[in-house]
Design goal:
This protein is an alpha/beta fold and 238 residues long. 38% of the residues lie in helices and 27% in strands. The strands form 2 sheets. A 6-stranded mixed beta sheet has the order 6-7-8-3-9-10, with helices on both faces. A 4-stranded antiparallel beta sheet has the order 2-1-4-5, covered by helices on one side. A hairpin with a 2-residue loop joins strand 4 and strand 5. The longest helix is centred in the last third of the chain and has 18 residues.
């Protein structure tokens, strides 16, 4: 069942247009990988989907029109964005960061259950609840950023370069957890990632962006088998 539908999306900064008529669809409960070189427009795409920048075109989620709405409205519609660089509130504690993730929801006992749910995915955060977020390692901060996003119980989770600056072992564990979240909660995920091997390893479908346009789309297996992608992003020839 189609969940996210993007049609003829254009966006940019000031007079500089970055996205040129991007269109894609993502099924409910799927993981979609967005690949491409630096400057291709991948981050801009996620910012447009979460309302951080103005965009033209059409974006619908579960049939609801999200086009042109501000970030707080989209958060209430079930869109959670984990930006590049994590975006955690460094002076606040881990627990305060997590609770801030639920600001769009009504207070109640279910929030405590959700904290336990996040600790299940990221046990290390439970041992760091009273620590300032700025004292965490890079991997722990990324876990906190994803955990905070999950506290809003999103229908669509946008991840921008989750492996940035992390050790390979930490990155693999992080992607394993993202895959588990998707499988257990059926959360639709769109992930922008330079590590194409890992992204394609957990995704059902993928799109390749170049200069603000989608130049290749298909299942993760099809994209992995494409010779151009293999040479440019995976480091081998088909």
């Amino acid at each position: 069942m189609t969940h996210l539908v993007v049609k003829d999306l254009t966006a940019g900064y000031g007079d500089a247009r970055v996205l040129h008529g991007v269109g894609l669809t993502v099924g409910e409960g799927e993981i979609c990988a967005i690949l491409g070189p630096n400057g291709a427009g991948k981050t801009t795409l996620l910012r447009a989907l979460s309302g951080m920048i103005r965009a033209r075109g059409t974006v619908t989620l579960g049939g609801a029109d999200l086009t042109g709405h501000p970030p707080d409205t989209l958060a209430r519609q079930g869109v959670a964005h984990v930006p590049e660089g994590r975006g955690t509130f460094m002076p606040l504690t881990v627990e305060e960061n997590l609770r801030l993730g639920a600001y769009v929801r009504r207070r109640g006992p279910e929030l405590e259950a959700d904290l336990d749910r996040i600790h299940g995915y990221f046990p290390v955060l439970k041992t760091r609840l009273k620590q300032a977020a700025g004292s965490l390692s890079g991997g722990e901060q990324q876990m906190l950023a994803i955990g905070r996003a999950l506290m809003s119980r999103p229908r669509l989770l946008l991840l921008d370069e989750p492996s940035l600056g992390l050790a390979p072992l930490v990155t693999r564990e992080l992607f394993r957890i993202v895959q588990a979240i998707n499988a257990e909660e059926r959360t639709t995920v769109v992930v922008v990632e330079q590590n194409a091997h890992l992204a394609l390893g957990i995704a059902q479908q993928a799109h390749v962006l170049e200069t603000g346009r989608i130049v290749l789309s298909g299942t993760a297996e099809e994209i992995r088998a494409d010779e151009q992608v293999a040479q440019s992003y995976l480091g081998y020839r088909v």
